């Protein structure tokens, strides 16, 4: 038996008036998921433990089978694993976005945060900017590391886990009350604007109609993580296919193998077909039992508040990943189970993560069943199937 989990990050949503009261998942043209839903189990799963923040970190950790209440030590330490940073026990890792704040004459505290991803900046451009920040602000205590796109890392030697606000939670707001209370972090964040706003990379970006990546933004602090082996825990050899350092870091910590796909960038126009093929190859040619395909695009479009682009991301997921994986597995003659779900909702109306339960679809090609279901938030709720502990869902997938 082969197992594949396909996760559309932030795919769940709330009814939207301009979509005739439907969610993007209901509205999108998804013939593959529609066909699967009629032969699958549909239900809800609670991926965010009570009392924890609805982040992709806690949610994806739970989906991978790790109870965040036990294993979670912060988001950035997981990303450090992906980047290859060997953390000491006394290190604190801090996620460092390159963001867009308003380019005006106001003091830094009075600026507005415009874009948490700086027009989905390329890794190449961002690397130049992070290297400039490291040159000016790095020292024996603080070291900046390049990640992917707008997502980067600060390691603070003998640092403190301080409370910090995710930038995607405050889009369009004045930043003053959300800035770090820790003075060293605050000063570096303020100085980064002086370093970056008129950097040649940003001058060129502005001329091209793109948002400047003119400030760093700290969030997601945490200490060195310790995860148990996924294979020892589940008996399955697993492969991770993701463009996002967070997911790659979970995989590294869990002893899963990361499959790197050329052109996969965590954005709307990523290499969907390459991700699908990497999963198929892992399962059918390379001896893996389990493949986890993570697609960031629905979440990014939710943060951007773009209804049209979020619908498009879901349609791409259906046609360019789910269809291709299903057709390849069907043609192979292998018995398989496929689990499709988001990690958390990223509703258009709030442009950030929320903690409502998310809809899942579980298909088993060895079981004959017929339902009049659609894969959607509404149908999942009406099904009566409910998994209150998200970290147990993967065991349910593996229960043949």
Q: What this model shows, in words?
A:
With 400 residues, the chain is α/β, with parallel strands linked by helices. It folds into two domains: 2-72 and 228-398, Alkaline Phosphatase, subunit A (3-Layer(aba) Sandwich), CATH 3.40.720; 83-222, no CATH class. 36% of the residues lie in helices and 18% in strands. The chain is built from 15 helices and 13 strands. Strands 9-8-10-1-11-12-2-13 form an eight-stranded mixed sheet, with helices on both faces. Strands 3, 4, 5, 6 and 7 form a five-stranded antiparallel sheet that branches. A hairpin with a 2-residue loop joins β5 and β6 (151-156). The radius of gyration is 21 Å and the shape is globular. The model has no long low-confidence stretch (mean pLDDT 96).
**Rg over CA atoms:** 21 Å
Distance between the termini: 8 Å
Residue windows where pLDDT falls under 50 for at least 5 positions: none
SSE pattern: EHHEHHHEEHEEHHEHEHEHEHHEEHEH
Mean pLDDT: 96
| Residue fraction in strands | 15-25%
Helical content band = 25-40%
| Structural class determined from secondary elements | alpha/beta
CATH H-level superfamily of the largest domain: Alkaline Phosphatase, subunit A
